[in-house]
Design a protein that fits this description.
- The complex is a heterodimer of chains A (about 110) and B (about 110).
- By secondary structure, chain A is mainly β.
- Helix content of chain A is about 0%, strand content about 60%.
- In chain A, strands 2, 4, 5, 9, 10 and 11 form a 6-stranded mixed β-sheet that branches. Chain A has a 5-stranded antiparallel β-sheet with strand order 1-3-8-7-6, with no helix packed on it.
- Chain A starts with a strand and ends with a strand.
- Chain B contains no helices and 11 strands.
- In chain B, strands 2, 4, 5, 6, 9, 10 and 11 form a 7-stranded mixed β-sheet that branches. In chain B, strands 1-3-8-7 form a 4-stranded antiparallel β-sheet, with no helix packed on it.
- Chain B starts with a strand and ends with a strand.
- In chain B, about 35% of the residues are buried.
- Classes of the chains: A mainly beta (about 110), B mainly beta (about 110).
- Chains A and B meet through strand 4, strand 5, strand 9 and strand 10 of A and strand 4, strand 5, strand 9 and strand 10 of B.
């Protein structure tokens, strides 16, 4: 059974700092990995999708990497801003019928 | 672009009542799924569908029914609500295979 872990569970950084969020998974037989952002009381917004054959994806200040063989992904946020404050979730897709398995998220707070 | 639309956004039920959570997508996605999100447990898969007329159980299907009569709609039925079903429910859709998943804004359900 696939298990996804995100460390740390919570993180507080001052504005402007670069930061890394971690995601690990137990079964390397995945199709892809997706990073989401969730604001309090809101839905999930897709940030980046990395296919299993890719090493990284970039969107603006966000860069996600994938090391499938070691079961790890990182989300790098450059020059953090207070508007980046949210919970970040990673999910891996694998197994039958496109199932997503989620981690429990990292709650990020960027302070002024 | 409507994307994935869930209704209602909030609902309070009494124990034993039944209700249907609605989910509709306008992207012609084959794959649709329902998740519940509980504190500290991440999102867990309830039911999913790979196309009209085809549904299957996820990780936590007990107490829920689904049907898929059209590509666009995937309603989730609570047969007899229990306090343990108090949660936030998310509907998602995607093309099958390695495609990106899109989520609705969620339905916050409280069973008293």
């Amino acid at each position: 059974k696939q298990e996804v872990t995100q460390i740390p569970a919570a993180l507080s950084v001052p504005e402007g700092e670069n930061l890394v969020l971690n995601c690990s998974f137990t079964d390397s037989a995945i199709y892809n990995l997706q990073w989401f952002r969730q604001d309090p009381g809101k839905g999930l917004t897709s940030l980046l999708l990395i296919q299993s054959s890719q090493r990284e994806q970039t969107s603006g200040r966000l860069n996600a990497s994938l090391d499938k063989s070691s079961g790890r992904s990182t989300l790098y946020i450059a020059a953090s801003q207070p508007g980046d404050s949210a919970t970040y979730l990673c999910a891996v897709k694998g197994g039958t019928a496109s199932k997503l398995t989620f981690g429990t998220g990292t709650r990020l707070q960027v302070t002024l | 672009n409507a994307g994935v639309t869930q209704t209602p956004k909030f609902q309070v039920l009494k124990t034993g009542q039944s209700m249907t959570l609605q989910c509709a997508q306008d992207m012609n996605h084959e794959y649709m799924s329902w998740y519940r999100q509980d504190p500290g447990m991440g999102l867990r898969l309830i039911h999913y569908s790979v196309g009209a007329g085809i549904t299957d159980q996820g990780e936590v299907p007990n107490g829920y029914n689904v049907s898929r009569s059209t590509t666009e709609d995937f309603p989730l039925r609570l047969l007899s609500a229990a306090p343990s079903q108090t949660s936030v429910y998310f509907c998602a859709s995607s093309y099958t295979g390695r495609a990106e998943a899109f989520f609705g804004q969620g339905t916050r359900l409280t069973v008293v």
